Amino acid sequence: RKKLARRLLFDKSANDDHERSILTKLKQQCGGQFTSKMEGMVTDLTLARENQTHFEEYLSHNPNASPGIDLTVTVLTTGFWPSYKSFDLNLPAEMVKCVEVFREFYQTKTKHRRLTWIYSLGTCNINGKFESKTIELVVTTYQAAALLLFNASEKLSYNEIMSELNLSDDDVVRLLHSLSCAKYKILNKEPSAKTISPTDVFEFNGKFTDKMRRIKIPLPLVDEKKKVMEDVDKDRRYAIDASIVRIMKSRKVLGYQQLVLECMEQLGRMFKPDVKAIKKRIEDLITRDYLEREKDNQNVLKYLA
């Protein structure tokens, strides 16, 4: 679901029909409940495109409301998508106007929905005016907000950038590293080390140049893999518990090995369960008084209602 969300939001999906076809297969395999949110995400994006068209029509009929820059907003339904961290980023004045214009437009459509802006998923195309030429920079909203600070200041310290943007330490480190220590050094850093520290001072690198007219400056992702694996393990523990209890509730008494085999068969449609994990969950259910071993035969389990 998280990977699908990234593909859809960052327009990395090869084909909407392919996504729908995979969802249909998942639905047949795991049931409608498993895919309902993902189907909602794909539908959401279609509605968001329609919403963007209405927004463009609204701007063409209300020239006074124009934000002054091209603006695309993707409105999503909270329940369908993975939860994303939403920070109160201090937006530059240009972006504040964008938010206000879109909010006014959205209120003409509905008064009952509240918009929560997820700036961490936004992208901006900004023109970097360097000494050699102007280069279009494709950056995240965070990176754009940081770069625009240098329109008003020659030099800024780490702490000044942090307080101006109202971001956490981790985010500021990732952000400044991508702009001053990675492939494209849009900012010069003093001292010029490969790591970011709170005593660093930054200035705009006017001498920066590149053979391309348009460059994308990536912002390293937070490593979500570990968190995803933990969440999956947790969900699987609940699924194994539920399967064991279902089997024992209908059988009342069952041999240990038979229970493990039936549990593996029942869960096989969803994922390939690990025998060790099933045995661990059986022991856990025994300690929680859902099951007990027979006194005469330790390999036979009884269900406790």
Automatic annotation (TrEMBL):
Coiled coil: none annotated. The keyword Glycoprotein does not apply. PROSITE patterns: CULLIN_1 (PS01256), CULLIN_2 (PS50069). Residues 1-180 form the Cullin family profile domain. Keywords: Ubl conjugation. InterPro entries: Cullin, Cullin-like_AB, Cullin_CS, Cullin_homology, Cullin_homology_sf, Cullin_N, Cullin_neddylation_domain, WH-like_DNA-bd_sf. The keyword Cytoplasm does not apply. It comes from the Eukaryota. GO terms for molecular function: ubiquitin protein ligase binding. One of its GO terms (biological process) is ubiquitin-dependent protein catabolic process. GO terms for cellular component: cullin-RING ubiquitin ligase complex. Belongs to the cullin family. This is Cullin family profile domain-containing protein. The lineage of its organism: Eukaryota, Viridiplantae, Streptophyta, Embryophyta, Tracheophyta.
